[in-house]
Amino acid sequence: MHRHRILAALAGVAVAALASPALADAIDGNWCRADGKRMAIDGPAIVTPGGHKIAGDYSRHAFSYVVPGGEPGAGATVSIQLLGEYLAHARQGNGPIEEWRRCPAGVS
């Protein structure tokens, strides 16, 4: 009898875990930095912090692109890695890691 209660409890936990809402786990979306910079990723397209719409290399949890002419660091590669639903780290070349957060609703 005790074994059946344990199995029923485990089954209940499994059902509850499966019923929880799915979290966004893709890098697509609008990203903001504390200094006011913005970027938007939509599949292989990005609007860079400098405002240029270009193509890059997309995967569900990472994105990279070459900085276009007219922006600081033109020609360097920027690599962006999704770390969680609301956090990504970006690095231009061998520069410092930049922290990006999902923009609040209504901010793009």
3D structure, described in words:
Helix content is 17%, strand content 40%. The protein has one helix and nine strands. A hairpin with a 2-residue loop joins strand 5 (57-59) and strand 6. With 108 residues, it is α+β, with helices and mostly antiparallel strands. Residues 6-23 have low confidence and may be disordered. A nine-stranded antiparallel sheet has the order 4-3-2-1-9-8-7-6-5, with no helix packed on it. The chain has a single domain, classed as Lipocalin, CATH 2.40.128.
What is the fold's blueprint, element by element?
Blueprint: H1 2-19, E1 29-32, E2 38-42, E3 45-47, E4 53-55, E5 57-59, E6 62-66, E7 77-84, E8 87-92, E9 97-102
Antiparallel strand pairs: 1-2, 1-9, 2-3, 3-4, 5-6, 6-7, 7-8, 8-9
Helix amount: 10-25%
Domain unit count = 1
CATH topology category name: Lipocalin
Compute the gyration radius: what is it?
20 Å
CATH class: Mainly Beta
The helix/strand class is alpha+beta
Determine the strand fraction and express it as a percent band: 35-45%
Could you tell me the number of beta strands? Answer: 9
Q: List the strand order in the largest sheet.
A: 4-3-2-1-9-8-7-6-5
**Poorly predicted segments:** 6-23
Termini distance? 57 Å
- What are the secondary-structure elements, in order, as H or E? HEEEEEEEEE
Mean pLDDT: 84
Any idea what the CATH architecture is? Beta Barrel
